[in-house]
Amino acid sequence: MNSVNRWAWVEVDLGAIKTNVAALVKQAGRAELWATVKANGYGHGAVEVARTALSAGASGLCVALADEAHQLRQAKIVAPILIVSEQPEVAFEQMLGDQVVATVYNEATINSYAAAAKRLGVVGKVHLKVDTGMHRVGVPVASAIARVEQINALSSLQLEGVYTHFAAADLPSHDETAKQQQRFDDFVGELDRKKLRPKFVHTSNSAAVLRSLNAATDLVRVGIAIYGIAPSNETENVASRLRPAMSLHARVSHVQWLAAGEGVSYGLRKKLDSAANIATLPLGYADGVPRRLWSVGGEVLIAGKRCPIIGVVTMDQLMVNCGGIDVKIGDRAVLLGSQGDEVISANEIATRLETIGYEIVCGVSARVTRVYVENRN
Ligand SMILES: Cc1ncc(COP(=O)(O)O)c(C=O)c1O
Asked: Cα–Cα distance between 295 and 157 in angstroms, integer?
């Protein structure tokens, strides 16, 4: 089926990414969709996802780091790339050489980025990030006009966009999103009055697009939804048409019939209530399967059935209680994804671990080979 030298692999369904991007482009209306492919495309593979998203209607890409942008340029991807936070000065020449769109918000960074562009004899495109309430990075709204005027006075910079990021768009009942929106609208209104409005005004991540909060914007920065994952349990209802792209697979590498009372894995923490077939899978915490998943009800699909992980997940292997299932070495197991009628979603695992689906897919380590397929089903 594939040439992976190991009985464990990630499958990435590029057909699902294409379908999701096409649906989200439609949902974004007049706004351009820029696909967020930071953190190696949320664990799916940045270059493959970027190419697929662009072929499905995305107009640009977003990343977190200068080196992530560089990787895309080295793969000959020419689409616009926005780096969504300021980067250290040491990265500026590479960023300008890669013709990225830089995010800026600090007065000193703006001056030093302009100076680097001047040295290279180029004009650097920048987007100003405004902090309307998230309090992570960005210029406070009160100083945002001054930063726009600072950028406009520097001939080696071109202000191409202004944007903000929502802190709680994935929580529809949270009232902060409307407040952030209002603060940002006031700022953009002021830009309009001063005739300073740049080409791109943008606010929306996946949750905001799925909730149609992007009406007045020129581009949307969509991440998790293109991978087919709802931003939160609270937004599942508006994300139900998305198709998950990532699945995590293994083959059974060892089987033992163990008697009631036997313990399994390090610490022998839990004894078997009754005799059972115990299957070993060659995946562990070094692959991104959290060690404590067994203790929060973590399950694996084998023979189309949900089987509990038994005993702590070890570095390279984990054990599954298959009960009376006649499981054999080489049988297929699914840790994330579907088998028969059963599905284990990233958000199901995340809920057990009190985290979010983003962390589950980003957490699958580089040790697990990504196998790319077009349309799994
Ligand atoms: C500034 C910014 N925009 C957009 C995104 C994409 O967010 P999401 O994956 O929720 O669509 C992120 C991701 O965290 C981000 O930091």
From this structure: 53
User: Is it the case that residue 234 has pLDDT exceeding 70?
Assistant: yes
- The sign one gets for the Cα dihedral 216, 217, 218, 219 is negative
Q: Which residues of 2-36 are buried (b: 16+ CB within 10 A; e: fewer)?
A: eeeeebbbbbbbbbbbbbbbbbbbebbeebbbbbb
Q: At 102, list the tokens.
A: 């830089």
How does pLDDT run across 336-365, given as a tens digit for each residue?
999 999 999 999 999 999 999 999 999 999
State yes or no: pLDDT of 321 exceeds 90: yes
pTM: 0.97
HSE at residue 82, side-chain half, CA atoms within 13 A, is 28
Q: Could you report the per-residue pLDDT of 115-127, keeping only the tens digit for each?
A: 999 999 999 999 9
Q: Is the separation of the CB atoms in 277 and 289 below 8 Å?
A: no
Q: Which atom of ligand 1 is nearest to the CA of 103?
A: 1
How many angstroms separate the alpha carbon of residue 234 from the centre of ligand 1? 17
Average pLDDT value for residue range 272-279: 97
Q: Is residue 170 part of a domain?
A: yes
Q: How many Cα atoms sit within 13 Å of 14 on the Cβ side?
A: 17
Among protein residues, the one with the nearest Cα to ligand 1's atom 8 is 223
Taking every pair of C-alpha atoms in the chain, what is the biggest distance, in angstroms?
78
**Cα of 324 to ligand 1 centre, how many Å?**
45
Domain boundary pick from 173, 205, 238: 238
Task: Tell me how far the alpha carbon of residue 228 lies from the centroid of ligand 1, in angstroms.
Answer: 14
Residues 46 and 21 in one domain: yes
Residues 6+ apart with CB under 8 A from 58: 21, 25, 33, 34, 35, 79, 226
Check residue 2 and give its pLDDT: 56
Which tokens belong to 247? 């699945």
Q: pLDDT-derived band of residue 375, with 50, 70 and 90 as boundaries?
A: confident
CATH number of 130's domain: 3.20.20.10
205, 219, 246: residue to mutate for ligand 1 pocket, most atoms within 8 A of CB: 205
The total number of structural domains that make up the chain: 2
Residue position matching structure tokens 């890409």: 61
Active site residues: 38, 266
Q: What are the pocket residues of ligand 1 if the criterion is a CB atom closer than 6 Å to any ligand atom?
A: 36, 62, 84, 165, 205-207, 221-225, 231
pLDDT score of 1 more than 70: no
